[in-house]
Design brief:
alpha/beta, Ribosomal Protein L13p, Chain: A, two-stranded antiparallel sheet, 6 helices
Length: about 150
């Protein structure tokens, strides 16, 4: 019995659309990360990007559970004295909801060159308008919601 290994030039990619309205951030992010990796396909190969393109709309209407808007804090440091910064999740969402959702999903992808390649197939928009109508994305919101 032989195992099938996908080749990057043979992978067929689809465009899928996810409406993030009232979806829980972590659950949606993990399911979208699996789609970006290609884990939903029978040809999944860990060292090949077999995933699909994902367009997320209405990122500003995403939900988080508990008190995460007030208590979840993101820290960063510039490397200079006094360069420590922190921001609550609520502040980050008010400032740029699309970037906040994108960071949550990218954090669930591999942290290497293959993960960066997968991350380039993710398109996130705060509102319901997006410039990818020409690709005719298939709406899979209900499968992500479950």
């Amino acid at each position: 019995m032989k195992s099938y290994l996908a080749k990057s030039n043979e992978v067929e990619r689809r465009w899928v659309l996810v409406d993030a309205t009232d979806l829980v951030l972590g659950r949606m992010a993990s399911r979208v990360a699996a789609i970006l990796r290609g884990k939903h396909k029978p040809i999944f190969t860990p060292n090949v990007d077999t995933g699909d393109y994902v367009v997320i709309i209405n990122a500003e209407k995403i939900r988080v559970t508990g008190m995460k808007l007030l208590k979840k804090v993101r820290y960063r440091h510039s490397g200079y004295p006094g360069g420590f910064k922190q921001a609550t999740f609520g502040y980050e969402m008010a400032k740029d909801p699309a970037e906040t959702v994108r960071r949550a999903i990218l954090g669930m992808l591999p942290h290497n060159a293959l993960g960066r390649e997968m991350g380039r197939k993710l398109k996130v928009y705060a509102g319901d308008a997006h410039p990818h109508q020409g690709q005719q994305p298939e709406d899979i919101t209900e499968t992500v919601r479950q």
